[in-house]
Amino acid sequence: MHGTVELILNSALLWIFLEATWTVLVSILYSFRIPWIFWGSLIILIGLKLVRVPPPHASIVNEVLGVNPFFIGKEIHTTENQGDGERYCMSVIAHRGGGYDYPENSLSAFQNSKEKGCTAIEFDLVLTKDNVPVLYHDVTLERLTGQKGILSEMTWDQLKELDITFNHPLRNKFPKGEKIALFKDALELCLNNDQHIIIDIKEKRLDVIQVVLDAYKENPNLFKKAIVSSFNPMIVYLIRRKEPRIVSSLAWRPYYLSRESYSGINGTGPSRSTNPFKHLAACIMEILYEWALPSFVYYIVGISAILLHKDIVNLHVIEQWHNRGIRVMAWTVNLPSEKLHFSRLFKITYLTDTLLAEKHRVHNI
């Protein structure tokens, strides 16, 4: 269905392009007047400028993310006033703290990452029913805890004793189990460990905006250590609208709105909706968003990085985003051969689920 919808939309766009071209030619050659498309484009451009939240200064971005690994060894990465980021390069990020080695999104995973020498952590932020910010990735509890239930429909008192090691392959390694982590505890641990943080917002409710803003207010060091990210550009935009100093990114993969998963080798996972009309609407929305994201969404939100599914990353994609002033990060890279490919050929930061045999590269410039 996705291919058919894309073909229909492309056909409509081609017709619009041809009609607009004809109208412009008639306006110029026959009526001798400025075509309406010029004024329309000017109005849209002014509108984009008005609603845009500019990204933080490069010195702040480099403070948080370090030097872009793509430019290491090239003179173009060296600029004045880059701050402390000039001495640091975020080459590897522990995805959910390294969920293959330790329970994902857990305090023990973050501590293990520190001990392994990993300088950067990514974790998922959601809210409980009573608006307690916690670290969890899935909508449901079953995959990690073995218990049935939807996290957003449960209170913190109902969740705080659940063991997230229940289904972990290395469960015997954690005889005392592991509890769902509170957002504030995770921030405290990572900041005390001098780790950089990617706060991946999975929560859909707008209440999470104030949670993030309060966290930055209570922990000003986050402005130098953390980056806010989400698949939802509106969440990131509203956060940065209130606090433009926050460094941000957007995450993207093909078929995110219509399919539960994606792999370059295995293709798409099951549909997110069994309703054919909802699935059709999702297909249309993601085709439009795939066009809008690199066209103007990144510009309006003011992101400094883009987190892309590893199977769609290539040198051309990296170059396109670099031309927009955006650095590329790839997720999730777990095979040793892939890690070498992304670090040596692509020279970009990657997120990984395992830190075993990982060679962390902290560059001193």
Main traits of this protein?
single chain; 365 residues; alpha/beta; TIM Barrel; 2 domains; 8-stranded parallel β-barrel; 13 helices; 11 strands; 14% strand; globular; PLC-like_Pdiesterase_TIM-brl; transmembrane; transmembrane helix; membrane; GP_PDE_dom
Please tell me about this protein's structure.
- The chain is α/β, with parallel strands linked by helices.
- It folds into 2 domains: 1-48; 56-352, Alpha-Beta Barrel (TIM Barrel).
- It has 13 helices and 11 strands.
- The chain has helices at residues 2-29, 36-51, 58-65, 107-115, 142-145, 156-159, 183-192, 207-218, 222-225, 233-242, 276-301, 315-323, 336-346, and strands at residues 92-95, 120-127, 133-135, 196-201, 226-230, 247-252, 262-263, 267-268, 305-309, 327-331, 349-352.
- It is globular and about 80 Å long.
- The termini are far apart.
